[in-house]
Amino acid sequence: MKKDRRISQIIDVSTPALTSGMETVDSILEKYPQYAPELRPRLEAVLWLTDAKKNLEPPQGFIISSRACMEIQLEAIQPQGFWYRLLKRYTPQRWVFNVAAPIVLVLLLALIINSLVLTARLSIPGESLYSTKILLENLQLALTFDQAKKTDLYIQYSRERTTEFVELVLEGDYEVLPTAAARSESEIIAYLHSINKLKNQNLTEELPKKAELKETLSNEIYILNILKGSSPPTAYPGIELAIQAAQSGLFALH
Amino acid sequence: MPGRSDKDHELIKQAQRGDKHAFGELYEIHAPVIYRYLFAHLDNSMDAEDLTGEVFLKAWQSLPKYIERGVPFLAFLFRIAHNVLVDHYRQNNRLEPKSSDDMDSYKEDGCAEPVDLIGSQMEHQQILKVLSKLRTDYQSVLTLRFISELSPEETAQVMNRSAGAIRVLQHRALRALRDEMDRTG
Question: Is the ipTM of this complex over 0.95?
Fold first, then answer.
């Protein structure tokens, strides 16, 4: 291996002199007699390649004349930047863009909608996305055709209203409390209507649903009374309204 | 070739700004080397002339993509030249250059070549015949080192190998070439 490397070095050093005619194969071999058997065939090959190179030179005047032609052609061809390749048809960049763009858009849209829905679901009355939350709930109700499931949704939304109410009191948003109490009342009324519809359809689920509502309303009254005890007097009217709504619901059930 | 990369660097910067004359300078510097490389793989000078132009036009179009990260402009050109050659073979439904036997087709085509040009073509076909018998990597290293006159380091960059690997490859390729010369006569 060391010998091979030495021979390669000799060839690298001797090639310019050999190709320019300043040295011959024999004169080089005289300098390195110990490598002569390996060096000779390789130097002869280099000499052959040097002769071959002369046959491969461009025709005289070709470079100058073709340069002029090429500069004229360059006038018509602009360098292709990234955006050019992207906007040009049938380029790999364009193909990747065509495939990737809709996928990225759909994913982005799904991400935005998902974040929006999640934020809306966590919103409370008085916040900008609260109307979206109510809209989503109404949409879910409209798309639920099974009366029993619809009744379940009403009870779920009724509990949601109580949670919102508690959050409003804890955050000190007392001026929104009457509106929230009115919404809570309308949820209870809707639930009662739904139970009546179940009754008309002779479904066996009526009694358990009634018991569930009774339990929910009792819990609500209990929580609201605790809230009332720990809140400033300015919150009383709103909390009172919510308690009255829950009590009316209980009364209607009886 | 000392100072070549410095000059290239300046000309490339100008060309990237759209200076066609600077690119013309680059063409004048590097076209002979690219031409020899292409002609060593092609069977006629007309194709070599056309493909040399094509290499530089593609280089011009790809110039905004070209960022000097230790890869000299010549290596960039050789990579384009390699791709252009592959496309050329593909378009002509062949993977190897013509053998010297194809020289007969010139006579049959009735091309009115001058006598000295035919002599030169015969020699060229002989070169192709010998080189085409070698392994592809041997052909590449010999063409780049002794016909395009690249240094071992430049050859290494074009062939994506280390300079040491290029020296080993050259050592073997020269021996293989000498043996092939004996066989071909």
Answer: no
State how far residue A11 is from chain B, nearest Cα, in angstroms.
9
Residue B46 has pLDDT above 50, yes or no: yes
**How far is the CA of A82 from the CAs of A87, A237, B58, B172, in angstroms?**
9, 66, 15, 43
pLDDT band at residue B175, thresholds of 50, 70 and 90? very high
* Contact yes or no for A58 and B147 at CB 8 A: no
Question: What Å distances lie between residue A169 and A122, A163, A243, B32, CA to CA?
Answer: 16, 10, 14, 86
Q: Name the band, by pLDDT with cuts 50, 70 and 90, for residue B111.
A: very low
- Residue ranges in chain B assigned as alpha helix (H): 4-16, 20-39, 45-61, 73-91, 103-109, 115-132, 136-142, 152-159, 163-184
Express each pLDDT in B56-69 by its tens digit.
Answer: 999 988 887 777 66
- What residue of A is the nearest CA neighbor of B55? A70
For residue A48, the chain B residues in CB contact (below 8 A) are 130, 177-178, 181
CA distance A158 to B138: 83
Q: Which of B94, B102, B144 is nearest to B121 (CA)?
A: B102
Smallest Cβ–Cβ distance between B53 and the set A8, A55, A66 belongs to A66
CA dist list (Å): B175 to A12, A39, A41: 15, 9, 6
A147, pLDDT greater than 90: no
What is the Cα–Cα distance from B113 to A215, expressed in whole angstroms? 107
Q: Cβ distance B99 to B121 under 8 Å?
A: no
Confidence (pTM): 0.55
Instruction: List phi, psi (to 5°) of B17.
Output: -85, 0
Per residue in A41-58, pLDDT tens? Answer: 999 999 899 888 888 888
| Chain B CA closest to residue A78 | B61
Residue A151 pLDDT more than 80? yes
